[in-house]
Fold this sequence. Notes:
This protein is 27% helix and 26% strand. It is α/β, with parallel strands linked by helices.
Amino acid sequence: MRLVFAGTPEFARIAFDALRAAGHEIPLVMTQPDRPAGRGLKLTPSPVKQAALDAGIPVAQPRSLRLDGRYPDEAAEARALLEQIAPDVMVVAAYGLILPQWVLDLPRLGCLNIHASLLPRWRGAAPIQRAIEAGDAQTGVTIMQMDQGLDTGDMLLERVVPINADTNAAQLHDALALAGGEAIVQALNALAQGGLTPVKQPEDGVTYAAKLDKAEAALDCTQPAELLERRVRAFNPVPGASIRLPGLADPVKVWRAQVVASDATGEPGSVLRADASGIDIATGSGVLRLLELQKAGGKRQPVDVFVRGWQPG
């Protein structure tokens, strides 16, 4: 296949590498413009751009693909590039730009998206985190024929990935990225042989994975301990769950926690006990034990180290 690859973060980079390893021709990569990163806010290329440059593949970084949008010259330049390349298919993975109809229509076989959920569950921006937060036992990747809707296109292939009781978002991201790379290679092989049958998404079971908001990081201890524990895992590493503890002016990041059986009770958010085995927090229902924490400006610490330097007052 002659492909154009459109993607930006590490999730997409894994798929890009899989496609190259499978021998597909990729004459162009499209990715988001470089963004400020790090303490010096230095302009930094995306993981996909860096991988493309390392492979000697040309990169395009339009700020928009809408010919009638804010950057029509950049969109027109991108269209000219794509028309010149005449790709069989465009593979899209966490690209970050909306594809207008002219892009969807340009490749001979259309545009295929690698989406990190089992559609129609968790359409939208944060399917990995929302699946953990909701307590789903499994998720996966869907290879989808793109249309102009929000993750509404016909499904071509799915791969199931389990979510274990201790799986966090970083771990699930990596598992889904690998599954996505394998799935897109399998899908393209089948597509080349005419062996893929599009399946319309069912109307039942549609859910939307809202974009993560930093305001969600603060744990609301009036909620049940089970939900709070899932949020700790769902928000690891971004945006990172946080909680206020007595004796500390700033919220503390919580990187690992567990629900424990306890007869102790108290006002939600109060500390029931604290020792080297954990810090037990009263919640709206049950007890949440904090196991790995990070003070503002500090490093992640297991709870036995954290409590030695904590003066709750």
